[in-house]
């Protein structure tokens, strides 16, 4: 059968209509405007090759659509002047079809082969297509001498099973004039460095290194391949830069994956290590782990990607260590339905959603991560159990530092969540629309890597969106149970901690500042807020404030048409520091409530001197709300403080503590621009027997991390009960303040003594702690000058003991008349003002709080003498 001017048929479609199986249709030179459906087993061949025989589609449908078996298309120029999103040649569910000697350009797919078997592609040239050749869910293909040169995707294989990746594709095939290496059943092979694209299928010990690849469905792919290495590879312009599919025990190291649709995808592949890779500026996600176990991500940089930086879905025993994950359009790290995941020492900053988002998982450990300046939440723990967060920093995120929602058995220790709300919402966007070739792949069922493309199994933003209001939170705990927080630093937020409809919450040693809502415990219709109070009415007669004041505010929300009652209550512990507090003073410590400017002792409170706290149960009046009413009562605030008995007054009428301060010395610290000392500084006691030396560059900080501007040295009016009598009688004991001050480097304390008083004993400087009592310091002794010296890093109570030489470490200093402890420094010394209070006190509250909050009916906790 012939086609052309003066031939049997004027066009190919007419010839096909009259053809039978095994017909040969010979096409004369010319340009044919038609879209052809080949539904018979025929050979369609040009008479003089592709240079002389052209087929232009007459619609946007597939130019040649092959649905029959045993079809051959030979020697045509199949092109489109305007880019057509449909395929040039499309083989669907057919077997033993051959495409040979064709030039194909101007299409979405140059050649698309879907659900076919044994397709043969030889000597075809493809250019100016979105995608040149795609083999999808097809088996046993053969490719030779095909030249793929489009700027989109040149070549790709997509399948769900190993069989759909077993093809005979040799390196005579070129992608941008570089060989395509398609390895099947290979062992111990190193890919040549001229490769333009690499697939390793069902192979072992394959080495792929020192390549620059691009413009493929996958730049480098390992399919059912093990014990292989991808190293020093740069990949760009691909659908997925690096793919590991159903593989195990592989290493991906020093890969640069930039400007792909997705960077690195590890799918159903176990025991993979991703080490020191750069995965930046990909349209969708950076690194995606799906259904993979025992994965390690170490030292990777993942930034500027259009979705999550790192996504972990249904993958267990995953470790992310020391990765840098910044400026991604969604979350920095997103973990869903995964267990036994460790995140340690990662920097996750400036992402457009959450820094770290963990959902539907358990046994997650986060330690030492820095999660700052993210435009959503720093760290989200949602519907996740049995997990620990320790030593994480989540500062200056837009809404919440750490957010727990529907979580249980979560422990938070030593975390810092400061200045939430200081960072605004970033507008980080890669592109407004999805690249056209990626949209085409999705239309043809190529859905392999991202949240919204893997069989619909994931959905973005599955966690309820936190309400965005004007309040910023350091930590927010919602609908969560059995939560423990300890040693948390939360400052600079509107609310440092809020717990909402949560039970069995333990809060221990949380440091907060500011007079805003320091801590909030909220139910559906009410809120309990704790905050520091900077001042209060005068102490009760004969009493001295121990460590500041705390306000607990009960707030009710307006409610309509719901008869109910709202009880407020909690068990609370107030901790205190006892260095220098004598037994009588400590035994008098008690918790007081401020009522109409009068301090009233809280009934039923208990003092624990062993662990230094006072515990009590406190509650606000029960509030009944009738149906059909709107009730918004004024906040009910409880102010609490610890007081102890005042020391006896002297003849001057001033208190002993005030007299201590007035007889002490205060020295201002000359701080430089960096916060460190601008010069060496010496502080002496009022009798000059004790000297403190701080060296240039030393930084002094109070317990809240604020710079200390001056130092006070006093002689305490009383000593702990276990102080030896000879120490008390010697008078060689001093207190340095402000209490709790720490230093960036050690400072030197010296105490002068009379050697005759220590005959047969070694002078040793001791420090006192509430936990361990008196503790010996390593001491250097200058007998000739009568001076003991030790190095310290924080302030407390110090005294000079006389001990047996073998009891502690004593270094004997040999001198020749030189004063070894008198550095050439400038002394600054002033007497302290006589003050009635202490500007150096700070407060740290240890709370054990059990909230059982219900929406409709709640059992109120009442005790005699409730507040």
What does this 3D model show about the protein?
The chain contains five helices and 77 strands. The protein is mostly beta strands and 867 residues long. It has a 26-stranded mixed sheet. The chain has a 19-stranded mixed sheet that branches. A hairpin with a 2-residue loop joins strand 21 (174-175) and strand 22 (178-184). The radius of gyration is 38 Å and the shape is elongated. It starts with a strand and ends in an 18-residue tail after the last strand.
Distance between the termini: 103 Å
- Structural class designation: mainly beta
Backbone CA Rg: 38 Å
Helix content: under 10%
Instruction: Enumerate how many helices there are, as a single number.
Output: 5
Strand content: over 45%
User: What is the average per-residue confidence, as pLDDT, rounded to a whole number?
Assistant: 80
- What is the number of beta strands? 77
Blueprint of the fold:
Layout: E1 2-3, H1 12-18, E2 24-27, E3 30-33, E4 36-38, E5 43-46, E6 53-56, E7 64-66, E8 72-74, E9 77-84, E10 89-92, E11 98-100, E12 103-107, E13 109-114, E14 120-122, E15 125-127, E16 131-136, E17 142-144, E18 147-148, E19 153-158, E20 168-169, E21 174-175, E22 178-184, E23 187-190, E24 197-201, E25 204-214, E26 218-223, E27 229-236, E28 240-245, E29 248-253, E30 256-258, E31 262-267, E32 270-275, E33 278-280, E34 287-290, E35 295-298, E36 301-303, E37 310-313, E38 318-321, E39 324-326, E40 333-336, E41 339-344, E42 347-349, E43 356-359, E44 362-367, E45 377-382, E46 385-390, E47 400-405, E48 408-413, H2 436-443, E49 473-478, E50 481-490, E51 495-500, E52 503-512, E53 517-522, E54 526-533, E55 543-556, E56 564-575, H3 583-587, E57 590-595, E58 598-601, E59 606-608, E60 613-625, E61 636-645, H4 656-663, E62 665-668, E63 681-684, E64 690-694, E65 700-701, E66 710-714, H5 725-730, E67 733-737, E68 742-752, E69 762-769, E70 773-776, E71 779-782, E72 787-794, E73 797-803, E74 810-812, E75 826-827, ...
Parallel strand pairs: 1-2, 2-5, 3-6, 4-7, 5-8, 6-9, 7-10, 8-11, 9-12, 10-13, 11-14, 12-15, 13-16, 14-17, 15-18, 16-19, 17-20, 18-21, 22-24, 23-25, 24-26, 25-27, 26-28, 27-29, 27-30, 28-31, 29-32, 30-33, 31-34, 32-35, 33-36, 34-37, 35-38, 36-39, 37-40, 38-41, 39-42, 40-43, 41-44, 43-45, ...
Antiparallel strand pairs: 21-22, 52-77, 53-54, 54-55, 55-61, 56-60, 57-58, 57-61, 59-60, 62-66, 62-76, 63-64, 64-68, 65-68, 66-67, 67-73, 68-72, 69-70, 69-73, 71-72
């Amino acid at each position: 059968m012939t086609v052309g001017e003066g031939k049997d048929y004027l066009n190919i479609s007419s010839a096909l209509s009259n053809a039978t199986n095994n017909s040969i249709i010979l096409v004369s030179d010319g340009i044919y405007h038609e879209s052809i459906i080949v539904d018979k087993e025929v050979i369609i061949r040009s008479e003089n090759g592709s240079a002389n025989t052209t087929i232009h589609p007459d619609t946007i449908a597939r130019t040649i659509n092959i649905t029959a078996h045993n079809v051959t298309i030979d020697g045509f120029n199949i092109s489109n002047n305007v880019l057509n999103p449909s395929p040039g040649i499309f083989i669907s569910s057919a077997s033993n079809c051959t495409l040979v000697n064709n030039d194909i350009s101007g299409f979405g797919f140059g050649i698309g082969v879907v659900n076919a078997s044994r397709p043969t592609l030889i000597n075809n040239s493809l250019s100016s297509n979105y995608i040149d050749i795609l083999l999808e869910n097809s088996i046993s293909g053969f490719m030779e001498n095909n030249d793929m040169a489009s700027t989109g995707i040149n070549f790709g294989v997509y399948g769900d099973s190993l069989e759909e990746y077993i093809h005979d594709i040799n390196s005579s095939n070129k992608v941008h004039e570089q060989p395509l290496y398609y390895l099947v059943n290979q062992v111990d092979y190193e890919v040549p460095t001229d490769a333009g694209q690499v697939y390793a299928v069902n192979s072992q010990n394959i080495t792929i290194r020192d390549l620059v690849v691009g413009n493929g469905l996958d730049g480098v792919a390992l399919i059912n391949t093990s014990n292989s290495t991808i190293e020093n590879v740069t990949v760009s312009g691909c659908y997925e830069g690096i793919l590991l599919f159903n593989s195990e025990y592989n290493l991906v190291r020093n890969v640069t994956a930039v400007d792909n649709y997705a960077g690195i995808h590890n799918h159903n592949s176990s025991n993979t290590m991703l080490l020191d890779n750069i995965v930046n500026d990909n349209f969708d996600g950076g690194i995606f782990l799906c259904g993979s176990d025992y994965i390690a991500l170490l030292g990777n940089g993942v930034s500027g990607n259009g979705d999550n930086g790192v996504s972990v879905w249904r993958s267990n025993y995953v470790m992310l260590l020391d990765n840098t994950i910044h400026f991604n359009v969604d979350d920095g790290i997103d973990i869903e339905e995964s267990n036994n995941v460790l995140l340690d020492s990662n920097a996750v900053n400036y992402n457009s959603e959450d820094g770290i988002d963990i959902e539907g998982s358990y046994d997650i450990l986060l330690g030492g991560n820095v999660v700052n300046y993210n435009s959503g939440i720093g760290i989200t723990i949602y519907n996740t159990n049995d997990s620990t967060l320790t030593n994480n920093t989540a500062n200056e995120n837009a809404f919440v530092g750490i957010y727990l929602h529907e979580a249980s058995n979560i422990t938070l220790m030593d975390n810092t969540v400061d200045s939430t709300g200081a960072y605004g919402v970033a507008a980080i966007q890669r592109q407004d629309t999805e690249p056209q070739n990626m949209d085409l792949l999705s239309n043809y069922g190529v859905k392999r890597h991202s949240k919204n493309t893997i069989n619909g199994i994931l959905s973005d933003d599955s966690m309820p969106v936190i309400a965005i209001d004007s309040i910023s939170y350091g930590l927010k705990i919602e609908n969560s149970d059995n939560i423990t927080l300890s040693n948390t630093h939360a400052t600079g937020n509107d609310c440092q901690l809020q717990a909402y409809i949560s039970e069995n919450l333990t809060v221990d040693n949380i440091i907060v500042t500011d007079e805003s809502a320091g801590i909030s415990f909220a139910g559906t219709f009410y809120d309990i807020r704790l905050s520091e109070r900077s001042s209060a009415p005068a102490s009760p007669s004969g009493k001295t404030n121990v460590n500041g004041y705390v306000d607990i505010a009960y707030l009710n929300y307006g409610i309509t048409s719901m008869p109910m009652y709202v009880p407020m209550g909690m068990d609370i512990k107030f901790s205190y520091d006892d260095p220098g507090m004598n037994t009588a003073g400590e035994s008098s410590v008690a918790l007081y409530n401020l009522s109409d400017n009068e301090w009233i002792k809280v009934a039923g409170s208990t003092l624990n001197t062993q662990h230094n706290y006072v515990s009590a149960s406190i509650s606000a009046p029960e509030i009944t709300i009738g149906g059909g009413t709107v009730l918004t009562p004024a906040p009910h605030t409880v102010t609490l403080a610890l007081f102890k008995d005042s020391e006896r007054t002297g003849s001057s009428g001033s208190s002993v503590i005030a007299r201590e301060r007035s007889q002490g010395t205060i020295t201002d610290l000359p701080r430089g621009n960096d916060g460190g000392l601008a010069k060496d500084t010496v502080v002496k006691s009022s009798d000059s027997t004790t000297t403190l030396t701080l060296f240039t560059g030393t930084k002094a900080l109070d317990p809240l991390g604020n710079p200390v501007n001056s130092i006070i040295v006093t002689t305490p009016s009383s000593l702990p009960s276990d102080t030896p009598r000879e120490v008390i009688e010697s008078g060689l004991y001093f207190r340095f303040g402000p209490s709790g001050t720490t230093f960036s480097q050690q400072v030197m304390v010296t105490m002068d003594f009379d050697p005759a008083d220590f005959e047969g004993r070694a002078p040793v400087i001791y420090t006192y702690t509430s936990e361990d009592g008196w503790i010996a310091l390593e001491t250097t002794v200058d007998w000739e000058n009568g001076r003991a010296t030790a190095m310290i890093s924080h302030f407390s109570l110090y005294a000079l003991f006389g001990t047996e030489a073998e009891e502690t470490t004593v270094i004997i200093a040999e001198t020749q008349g030189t004063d070894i402890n008198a550095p050439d420094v400038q002394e600054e010394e002033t007497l302290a003002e006589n003050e009635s209070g202490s500007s150096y006190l700070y407060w740290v509250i240890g709370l054990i709080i059990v909230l059982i909050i219900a929406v409709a009916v709640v059992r109120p906790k009442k005790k005699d003498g409730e507040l």
